[in-house]
Design brief:
By secondary structure, the chain is mostly helical. Helices cover 60% and strands 5% of the residues. It has two domains: 1-88, Multidrug-efflux Transporter Regulator, Chain: A, Domain 2, CATH 1.10.1660.10; 89-128.
Length: 138
């Protein structure tokens, strides 16, 4: 249940961390981690000290979640969110980040292709010798 900030029923609703977790499917621990890393900024605290989040926080969590799924680093995420919060178009920042990630994935693919080829050669050599130790008599 969304709460209203104290003293002003006309303001936008705010959500406690447990509500945000339910709405986003993220764990409370993950949301706290994002707060601790400065990626997610609570809109305030309740009288009881609970973190409160706005609808904008939910939108930012969507961005964080999508970029983390692409394995964007926490530091890169922080940079993207900082630019976004400043109201600057972050298309070039995001484009650069994604281009870097694509290059990293291409590099990893090449490493995996090499590993696969080496393992295939090793497997073939074992199949040719029938699994016997070199120099061992039948």
């Amino acid at each position: 249940m969304a709460l209203q900030p104290s003293g002003s029923p006309a303001q936008a609703p705010v959500f406690r961390i447990g509500e945000v977790a339910k709405l986003t499917g993220l764990s409370v621990k993950t949301i706290r981690f994002y707060c601790d890393q400065g990626l997610l900024l609570p809109s305030g605290r309740s009288v009881g000290g609970y973190r409160l989040f706005s609808a904008e926080s939910l939108a930012e969590l969507g961005i964080i979640r999508a970029l983390r799924a692409m394995d964007v680093s926490i530091s890169e995420l922080a940079r993207i969110l900082e630019v976004r919060r400043a109201g600057v178009c972050n298309c070039s920042v995001l484009k650069d980040s994604i281009a870097t990630k694509v290059a990293s994935i291409d590099e990893r693919i090449q490493e995996l292709v090499s590993m696969k080829a080496e393992l295939a050669r090793l497997l073939q050599s074992w199949q040719e010798c029938g699994g016997a130790k070199p120099g061992a008599a039948d």
